[in-house]
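Entry for cytidine-5'-triphosphate complex. Fields follow.
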Amino acid sequence: DFAPDTHRALYGRHIVVSAGPTREPIDPVRYIANRSSGQQGFAIAGALAALGARVTLVAGPVSLETPAGVERIDVETAREMAAAVDDALPADAAVMVAAVADWRAEAAAEHKIKKTGDAPPTLALTENPDILARVSAAGPRRPALVVGFAAETDNVLEHARAKLAKKGCDWIVANDVSGDVMGGTENAVHLVTADGVESWDRMPKGAVATRLAERIATALG
Ligand code: CTP
Ligand code: CA
């Protein structure tokens, strides 16, 4: 039966999800990246689609299968991710799970940087656009619900509350990455909203995704 599954809670909704790391070139053979596997973001995209949402998943370089029913757009750099997220709007919700590189090389070299026998090269960095902050400040194009993630190793809740305020998003899913969470299969998160903090037990990333998708469905009504 291929009739639209209109009883699913997110049927008719469009949700943009960012996931994975970004990769910032230094020269044609080198880049700056991070340890994000993309698992949590992909699981969230899949869980939202399973509830009937139309999901646009903007993904940095990861080795993961696209979840069923999800439209995936592959990008490499933070600037490409920012443009792809912007192109994906309007949306009812945005869930920015990507571990966006905070900095990129000021100017990527066109040719491979060679050892010269002198001192090592100095890498000048410049800050990348803050995609979450931009989506949160998108005016009439702002999704009704904007969710960010915060990966922290210390003072998790304090940093999460500060990020909620600084970025102008509605929720922060605060992630304690002091252990083996990054690249691992489980996650211990706190949902930080204007109403307060809800701490969830450590659970598989798939279970975090399902629970978050259900919360998003409730919030969107
Ligand atoms: N984020 C983003 N664009 C960036 C940096 C972060 O969209 N250039 C988003 C992430 O996807 C995440 C949230 O912002 O949803 C928080 O990311 P995080 O790295 O924890 O916060 P930062 O503001 O970069 O602060 P810091 O890394 O210094 O803790
Ligand atoms: Ca960061």
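NOTE: The mean pLDDT is 94.
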